[in-house]
Amino acid sequence: MVSSRACRPDGQQVTERCLPEECAVAIIHDGTTYAVLMASPTDLEDLAIGFSLTEGAIANMAAVAEFEMVGQADGIELRLWLRAGEGGAAGDRRRAIVGGSGCGLCGVESLAAAIHQVAKVTAGLRFSHGEIAAAAASLSGRQRLGDATRAVHAAGFWTRSEGLVAIREDVGRHNALDKLVGAMARMGRDGSGGIVVLTSRVSVEMVQKTARFGASVLVAISAPTALAVRTADAAGIALAAVARVDGFEIFCGAERIAQ
């Protein structure tokens, strides 16, 4: 808890506020630093696995032989030891500098690496308008850190048979999605059977990560960028955003969403 001075029209008042933590997190593959992120220090194994998957550094969980988390004076190292022959992709999109909690592409070393083509998502179910609304509403009351601080993002995965399967939170929206992907991968699951739900806006890298996860439907509370819509359309992802209690907007992939 941190003390703050609340300034209101009727005066000032000292109050206590719960604030989220963030710290430097290094993701290390076979002893070589792959990326350094600013992230919430929770669900960090999920973050290491999910980030490595959505960046294309590893193909699946089977590539990881061992995981180790080591605290340092200035942050946390997430050490992944990969099975023989699995580390070749890590250098293709290596992050050269620290990525801030609000940045999904910081440190990418070329324009081509930033706006790379994603494989088309061909699997996936069709969902009704009611199911899209239910997926968006499923995060309500489940954001423990968000409800306490009002300062973090959440990403969830919803299916029609299970409801909200998993939710992860982080100060960075990209980190929240990576944590979700990592959590699902550790369950032995991909995104083909359900809907990814975000509390954040949808930028191009959020679509890229969703495509890597194999999810065909992406729902967000906030609006997308124009590039995100074009990328989702090219990837075969249905993108529904500005999801509120009174409805949502379909920006592409309407064929995957039935009335």
From TrEMBL:
<dbReference type="InterPro" id="IPR003786">
    <property type="entry name" value="FdhD"/>
</dbReference>
<feature type="active site" description="Cysteine persulfide intermediate">
    <location>
        <position position="103"/>
    </location>
</feature>
<dbReference type="GO" id="GO:0006777">
    <property type="term" value="P:Mo-molybdopterin cofactor biosynthetic process"/>
</dbReference>
<dbReference type="Pfam" id="PF02634">
    <property type="entry name" value="FdhD-NarQ"/>
</dbReference>
<keyword id="KW-0963">Cytoplasm</keyword>
<protein>
    <recommendedName>
        <fullName>Sulfur carrier protein FdhD</fullName>
    </recommendedName>
</protein>
<dbReference type="GO" id="GO:0016783">
    <property type="term" value="F:sulfurtransferase activity"/>
</dbReference>
<dbReference type="GO" id="GO:0005737">
    <property type="term" value="C:cytoplasm"/>
</dbReference>
<keyword id="KW-0501">Molybdenum cofactor biosynthesis</keyword>
<dbReference type="GO" id="GO:0097163">
    <property type="term" value="F:sulfur carrier activity"/>
</dbReference>
<comment type="similarity">
    <text>Belongs to the FdhD family.</text>
</comment>
<dbReference type="InterPro" id="IPR016193">
    <property type="entry name" value="Cytidine_deaminase-like"/>
</dbReference>
<comment type="function">
    <text>Required for formate dehydrogenase (FDH) activity. Acts as a sulfur carrier protein that transfers sulfur from IscS to the molybdenum cofactor prior to its insertion into FDH.</text>
</comment>
